[in-house]
Amino acid sequence: MAISRNKSKPAKKVFYFSKYLRKSSEEEDSRSxxxxxxxxxxxxxxxxxxxxxxxxxxxxxxxxxDYTGTDSERPDFKRLLxxxxxxxVNMIVVTDLSRLSRNITESTNYVQVLFVALxxxxxxxxxxxxxxxxxxNKVYSLEVPMHGMFNENHAAETSFKxxxxxxxxxxxxxxxGAFAGYGWKKDPEDRHKLLLDQEPYEVMQMMKEWxxxxxxxxxxxxxxxxxxxxxxxxxxxxxxxxxxVSQERTTFLWSAEMVKRLMLRPENVGDLVQGRYRVxxxxxxxxxxxxxxxxxICEDAIPAIYTREEQRLITDALKKRTRVxxxxxxxxxxxxxxFLKCGDCGKGMTRITSxxxxxxxxNTYKKYGPKACAxxxxxxxxxxxxxxxxxxxxIKIAVDMENVLKKVDKAPLLRRKSDGYDxxxxxxxxxxxxxxxxxxxxxxxxxxxxxxxxxxxxxxxKYIDEEEKLISIIANLEDEKKKLEKVKDKKNxxxxxxxxxxxxxxxxxxxxxxxxxxxxxxxxxxxxxxFKFADDYKRIVxxxxxxxxxxx
Length: 552
Known about the structure:
Number of helices: 18
Mean pLDDT: 84
Largest sheet: 5 strands, mixed
Oligomer: single chain
């Protein structure tokens, strides 16, 4: 029985074709999007000219620039896959397999499984040259996984080299981010250098003044939105910068958290901070936080928005609780807001107005009554005058201490003692150098037969003991000298911060933020003021006690 085969031509097809182009930021210019597009246009024309049977309809060009081939979240590639699934595209042309993906598993799955299952014609011009319509068996050859392996290995090596290069540039204080932070812009002549961006810089200055006037982060947020000032993302949008999808969805309005984050950045004082995040690996592009001790921090590497003193005051102000009462129509922050604590329960004190008099009472007592805590009632005028007097006394102490330090600094005995420490350190250092030299020569004497092994060990042990004693003596001398040097230190924060308010006549919230940590109110109208710079104050007292015998 003869079997005949139908040798008629296959049904005419219509290929709805698209080009896919991709280039990462690390790849050479020869792989530019323009070059890929030109190559594909020429090759596609050859394919169409050679095929007089089927029809071809161009659909679209899908392009992902500055995206690595290991990134599965490329926006245009995801759009291409959606159009393939819907049947809009049934033919894809790329210059080579690495444009599709540099992940061996993904590239093999696309070519050998997904595209075959969906009836998509896949053409790679080179590396390897494939056409799943003209030669469907070739997509299953070893060339596909082999080139996938080469492409993935290239991605791994490139990732390592790029990360090492970036780390070197970070260590040198070079900016390597895609976008400058709010308040700066990239130098058009040097992409690794930042300049102040005038418009956001002025906004940051305005925010600073509001905070110094007593505004909370929430109040600053409200003012910015009322003035129609765009958020950092909105400002980037206005400048025409590229955004990912999540950024495009933003309302471009300010939030209190955004205000605090911007105003508390360490970069504000001119320190370049980089390396806060990194991707898990060259294949997994999810970002994870990096421990702070692994950040790259270069001091004074960029223009400062705030001075270090301004930054300290802003930090102190924003960390204070500055919630505004609903009955406060002017939305003002009161003098002691966030400073007052109950001496028993440790909770905050609440402000009470009665017959034009202002009082403070324990919030726990107000909410739950005398069984929970005592009232600790304190009149505002008494509290204000008491705190003012206490601060004035601290200022006087700072001025008096500075005068004593000046006297100690000029004392002849201090200078003689300091010189004596220098002389002793030099002498002991010379003795130490000799001992170390003798100890080094012992081994040669033993090898040359000038010493027996027993003599060598005995003398080595002796020299080691003398070496350790001298090292200890030198360390003690240097510690004593440092104590004297501390006396000469006129930049102690306690001195500098309190003495600059020598003419203080009236208490203000700025003064409280600058000098006071908290105020505890006890029973019977007793209060405890916890001043800032307590450790610096103790350091001066210790220095003066150590050097009390040096003043003749």
